């Protein structure tokens, strides 16, 4: 078969902003050894665990504040059983709820219960409405309560139109007051107005909240110290992973020699970082990042380089999933196909027998708009429905909103024992999408917007004490 050469549709994407930065990067030396930090973190984890042993003596309000702090500080993964048990008792009414609770606590309870799979009726907000069904005007002077209500409303499920009104009401007043408030509440409002808390990457919230939590009156010093230690230890491990992945990608990208494709090793790892957070998810994070790499190369091949015949042959080769299928491919795709098979064999080798899947599933990634690139979803909608760009964007936003509500509903209906981890990965994928494609931009292809986030996540100093 003749080798296919670059055609008129080839696109010169922006080069990588990182080059070998994370390959050669050496983090600043910490004043504390890793061994000391791990030992101290374990001591603090035990202290926090003892807090849950005293839940019978705590109010529901205090429990909600504790669980919320654990989540936003990024240390809730150490207490999943305790958190679930506590929220279950709150949901069943075993722990008494005062009817006079402030809006912040009622909304916080609603959000936390729904985030953990417990359905709560929207009727809990009726006590904050007047006789005409409108929210009491006094709430417009309660930024903390409005922010909690705003975030809670984004746990809506299909058919809960009443929460559309909640979002509109809270958003209007938060927008109006944000310029007159001080940090940290002003910063938290601005973040939520961009991306609501339930849809924001937890790791990014932790990065901000560690600093903000210290400014809160009555913050728990034990939680704060543990969060800082956990953040530093996790980031240290992830920087090592990132270096390893970048070395793998550099070698892989060179060997497959698809020079028309995006060189986005760091951004690929960011996807894995978003979907599988935490130090204990290293294996899943690396596997997912490599799958993103394979999809990215295939996407660029289909979108910007391959002929129709090349695309059909690559599709057939993937269906056959055998090295003998290289014979039907053009020369320039043979190494990519061979390496793809090798990657999935590697995944099989490192997974436990019960974790393996035998039928590889490679899904074409979202198209990306660039010069000479294929049509984006926006273009397709405009062409199909004869709408303007503004109308198409609004329609697609409505589709995304409905998809989020279906995700929320599904999470409250799943078998927790069987599917919780998978469901969280799906939610984290959607959260990562919100960040990467924020404002309708594509920060994976055009990486300037993502560069600042990556710098903050992996390079910004976080003091242990």
UniProtKB/TrEMBL annotation:
The keyword Ligase does not apply. The keyword Metal-binding applies. GO terms for molecular function: magnesium ion binding; terpene synthase activity. Keywords: Metal-binding. Residues 17-193 form the Terpene synthase N-terminal domain. InterPro entries: Isoprenoid_synthase_dom_sf, Terpene_synth_N, Terpene_synth_N_sf, Terpene_synthase-like, Terpene_synthase_metal-bd, Terpenoid_cyclase/PrenylTrfase. One of its GO terms (biological process) is terpenoid biosynthetic process. Residues 250-365 form the Terpene synthase metal-binding domain. PANTHER family: BETA-SELINENE SYNTHASE (PTHR31225:SF63), OS04G0344100 PROTEIN-RELATED (PTHR31225). This is Uncharacterized protein. It comes from Sorghum bicolor (Sorghum).
